[in-house]
Design goal:
By secondary structure, this protein is mainly alpha-helical. The protein has one domain: Four Helix Bundle (Hemerythrin (Met), subunit A), CATH 1.20.120.80. The strands form two sheets. The protein has a two-stranded antiparallel sheet with strand order 1-2. Helix 3 packs antiparallel against helix 4. The termini are far apart.
Length: 214
């Protein structure tokens, strides 16, 4: 008699390999996101080199924005602070997962709240940076660098925003009388996979855009 590819074990749906199919689905999604961000990063690197070859862009000595030469607009100290904020959100996410798995609801709720606040803080830094660049004349239509920069960092910011909403839903659900149910640890762990992914992607983006000289 043929067996179904997934079975129920201790309240969890697992594949024939013993891996929870919901976690496997998240890993598959993150794999596709790696390809997505990989293509955006590759596009940025290609057009960054093209801009540098023409002597413009924040990686050259001067930047041509709106027909006038200005010094580079990238604020590395500010972005370093926002990067630190996002990295700290990964630490609080670890505590949230631990609290959920060890049935410590207070720790889980506080850690989820801290992660959400830090995520919103990172988005605030990004909005400030975008507004500053716009005021100086750098936007999607300025040059190839502007287009690739805003698309790459903008999509990452969108993913962070989605993650904040995801965690906010978990936090709201944890205040129900039944909380997140008997699989609270599993739900928060899956959310943690997504959150750590967007943090890792940002480390790559930050290194390529802000730290590696042109």
């Amino acid at each position: 008699m043929a067996h179904a590819p997934a079975v129920v074990h201790s309240g969890r749906h697992q594949t024939s390999t013993g891996t929870d199919n919901r976690k496997l689905l998240m890993w598959m999604f993150l794999g596709s996101e790696c390809l997505f961000f990989g293509s955006l990063i590759a596009s940025y690197l290609i057009f960054k080199n093209d801009v540098i070859a023409r002597g413009v862009g924040p990686f050259a000595h001067l930047v041509v924005i709106g027909g006038e030469e200005q010094h580079g607009v990238l604020d590395i100290p500010l972005t370093s602070v926002s990067t630190f904020v996002l990295l700290m959100s990964s630490v609080t996410m670890v505590f949230a997962v631990y609290g959920a798995q060890q049935r410590l609801p207070k720790m889980m709720k506080l850690a989820l709240l801290a992660t959400i606040i830090l995520g919103i803080g990172f988005l605030g830094f990004q909005v400030f940076e975008f507004r500053t660049f716009g005021a100086e004349g750098l936007n999607l239509g300025t040059n190839l660098f502007g287009a690739t920069f805003f698309v790459l960092t903008g999509f990452h910011g969108t993913h962070v925003g989605i993650g904040v909403l995801y965690l906010a839903c978990l936090l709201a659900g944890s205040f129900r009388r039944t909380g997140l149910g008997p699989e609270a640890g599993h739900h928060v762990e899956i959310a943690g996979l997504y959150w750590h992914f967007v943090d890792i992607v940002w480390i790559v983006i930050f290194t390529i855009i802000y730290l590696i000289p042109g």
